[in-house]
Write a structure and sequence with these properties.
Elements lengths: L6 E5 L2 E11 L9 E8 L3 H9 L1 H5 L17 H10 L8 E2 L6 E2 L2 H15 L5 E4 L28
Antiparallel strand pairs: 1-2, 2-3, 3-6, 4-5
């Protein structure tokens, strides 16, 4: 079932839509690892989804196939070439493979590629990534305190 509720927010007097982009196993039916990226969009979720669904037809790229297999973090050479043709700066992503000249991506790279492709499909679509600070942090604060966040035990090993 898809969420149909648009989350509208006002930023600097402009109405935007808050949208979450999961990169990884968002349904938790496999390895369970997923990073979530949040954006402000000038268009509602259904318009962003439509752009995603048009990717293969419009650009010849199946967004859902990017690093889609377990432990597949390499940028496909054909996709790398297509991204270059579309104007994406490949040299600013990933890091070189150990055994070959491949490019290894992390979830942030994949998110950036995903949103770049959506903007190519719908040039009027504006997506701005939100980087919110986390309540948690490593070590101790200036007063010597450590934040112990709840919930670690509620996740079971599969």
């Amino acid at each position: 079932m898809t969420k149909s509720l648009d989350v509208k927010v006002k930023v600097n007097g402009k109405e935007s839509y808050l949208i979450e982009f999961p990169v990884g196993d968002w349904s938790d039916d496999g390895h369970g690892r997923c990073d979530y990226y949040h954006v402000l969009s000038n268009k509602p979720i259904n318009k962003v989804r439509e752009a995603h669904f048009k990717a293969e037809e419009t650009l010849g790229i199946d967004i859902g196939s990017i690093c889609s297999n377990n432990e597949d973090s390499h940028l496909n050479p054909a996709l790398a070439e297509k991204l270059k043709e579309l104007g994406y700066c490949i040299s600013k992503i990933g890091f070189p493979g150990v055994w070959d000249d491949s490019i290894i991506l992390d979830s942030g790279d994949i998110f950036n590629i995903w949103t770049f492709l959506l903007s190519k499909i719908d040039p009027s679509l504006k997506l701005k990534r939100l980087d919110a600070p986390s309540i948690s942090f490593y070590g101790k604060d200036k007063k010597g305190r450590y934040i112990n966040t709840p919930g670690y035990g509620c996740f079971c090993v599969k």
